[in-house]
Design goal:
Blueprint: E1 33-35, H1 39-55, H2 58-64, H3 68-80, E2 82-86, E3 90-95, E4 112-117, E5 121-127, E6 132-135, E7 139-142, E8 147-152, E9 155-161, H4 166-178, H5 219-247
Antiparallel strand pairs: 1-2, 2-3, 3-4, 5-8, 6-7, 8-9
Helix pairs in contact: 1-3
Length: 248
């Protein structure tokens, strides 16, 4: 059966150690900063786990041995298809299209993407590797990969395994959550709690209205505030009248 060869990693490392890593999967318009996975370490860990799992199950090993090259190639491609970045909207995670199963085009896994908005984020924390993964009580594979968990009020949204610098990622996520922006990235400061982007990519002000030329709310927003003040005055007057009736 014909099969496609394994693709090369979709990223290149910067030759200059002082130059910030950039994953070419994202354009500069799509992300403020991208982050590197430990692709090689992830592949070696998953490959070792797979091979040892097959080794303790001779029957399964004999059945899957002809497909093992495809399995390893699929594993390599699925790992190298993962990309993570931060943009103005939130944390952007993408698994790009990659071969699967028998590696024919009809078996390809389609692209999957997810964005976790900063204003919905409730937690972002790291788990350091410890202990080993035990395989059928026979073999152990030392855990060497960090795990970064991102939660919202609805529960766990992302669990990222194998980030090269998880602490830097966590620091940047919380900085964007606070509206501080990213160090070294111009125009990345966005006060999440008070500012939203309008339909024409304009910064919105109070109640989502555009800010005026002098930094205040636009006329429509100012009018809405005045109407609310009048409504409050009418409610207070109604309360006074009800108290008067109650005394009679």
């Amino acid at each position: 059966m014909a099969s496609r060869g394994s693709s090369m990693p979709p990223y290149t490392k910067m030759e200059d150690a002082e130059e910030e890593f950039w994953d070419p999967f994202f354009t500069r318009d799509q992300a403020l900063r991208t982050y590197e996975f430990e692709y090689d370490t992830m592949y070696e860990f998953e490959k070792k786990t797979l091979l040892l799992t097959l080794a303790v199950n001779p029957c399964i090993l004999m059945c899957t041995l002809p497909c093992l090259p495809c399995q390893l190639s699929n594993l390599y491609d699925s790992i190298h298809a993962r990309h993570i970045a931060v943009n103005e909207d939130g944390v952007r995670y993408v698994i790009e299209k990659h071969p699967a199963d028998c590696r024919l085009e009809i078996c390809d896994q389609g692209r999957v993407s997810k964005t976790v908005p900063f204003d919905k984020l409730t937690d972002c924390d790291n788990e350091e590797p410890a202990g080993s993964t035990i395989i059928c009580c026979c073999f152990c594979v030392k855990n060497v990969l960090h795990r970064t968990n991102i939660d919202t009020a609805n529960g766990r949204e992302l669990s990222l395994v194998g980030l090269k610098d998880p602490e830097a990622f966590k620091k940047d996520v919380w900085a964007m959550k606070r509206g501080d922006g990213l160090v070294g990235v111009d125009n990345s400061s966005v006060p999440i709690a008070t500012v939203r982007m309008g339909p024409n990519n304009e910064k919105s002000g109070f109640f989502g209205g555009k800010r005026g030329t002098k930094g205040g709310p636009d006329p429509a927003t100012a009018e809405l505030v005045q109407l609310m003040k009048k409504q409050n005055a009418l409610l207070e007057e109604t309360v006074v009248q009800l108290k008067t009736i109650a005394r009679k």
